[in-house]
């Protein structure tokens, strides 16, 4: 996994007509209250959600009712969002237990913050840490020791992701995909029909204007992008000026 080393910075102040990320999140919050409850989280340990001295949260991801995931830092939450938005990630787990036998015969253990399975079948165990912590020689020795004991049976490789590895454009789009995950069947059907014969690239704003669906249409297009039914013509922040193309068969 390669990530540009950029600082994350998001502008939540832009006004709009239902197309902004903040408005998409508000729309998700007002979704059908009779929908099925999401599945409980499945983890190797229970994260300390609700702790008073550091950030923690719970969010829902996945199709349909989805599943709950708990995270214990804002960086961990953002990394999870970014990974869920990647087309090469087919499964994401968190707090995955790894154990090994130390040289002195004792049993040691570590919970990897995140664990992904990719489309090629490879598995990556991920430590999510703040960048400043990487300067500690003691910490470097600790993570090197853990990684040295990871076998092919557990994961194909171990990696560390910090807040410096998160591209702000990718993070914005990942948050948008998360915010619009709940389907709007009538609008989604209309938007699929509108793009079914799309040749070349089209601007999202033009598609929304053509259908007359406003902010709901924008959110539907974001869902189609997140579902890989549409693709961005080039990597950029998703807004009305973004051009999309049909995904190649």
Summarize the structure in short.
The chain has 249 residues and is of the alpha+beta class. It is built from 7 helices and 9 strands; from the N terminus they run H-E-E-H-E-E-E-H-E-H-H-E-H-H-E-E.
Molecular structure report:
It contains 7 helices and 9 strands. The model is unreliable at 1-17 (pLDDT under 50). It has 249 residues and is of the alpha+beta class. The radius of gyration is 20 Å and the shape is elongated. The longest helix is centred in the middle third of the chain and has 13 residues, at 137-149. It has a 4-stranded mixed sheet with strand order 3-4-5-6. It has a 3-stranded antiparallel sheet with strand order 7-9-8. It has a two-stranded antiparallel sheet with strand order 1-2.
Q: Low-confidence parts lasting 5 or more residues at pLDDT below 50?
A: 1-17
* Main sheet properties: 4 strands, mixed
Write down how many β-strands occur, each being a DSSP E stretch of 2 or more residues: 9
Mean pLDDT: 84
Distance between the termini: 24 Å
**SSE arrangement, N to C:** HEEHEEEHEHHEHHEE
What is the rounded Rg?
20 Å
Inertia-based shape: elongated
Describe the secondary structure blueprint for this structure.
Layout: H1 21-29, E1 57-61, E2 67-71, H2 74-84, E3 89-101, E4 107-118, E5 123-128, H3 137-149, E6 157-161, H4 168-179, H5 185-195, E7 202-203, H6 204-211, H7 214-226, E8 230-232, E9 243-246
Parallel strand pairs: 5-6
Antiparallel strand pairs: 1-2, 3-4, 4-5, 7-9, 8-9
Helix pairs in contact: 1-4, 2-4, 5-6, 5-7, 6-7
Q: Which key terms come to mind for this protein?
A:
single chain, 249 residues, alpha+beta, four-stranded mixed sheet, three-stranded antiparallel sheet, 7 helices, 9 strands, elongated, disordered N terminus
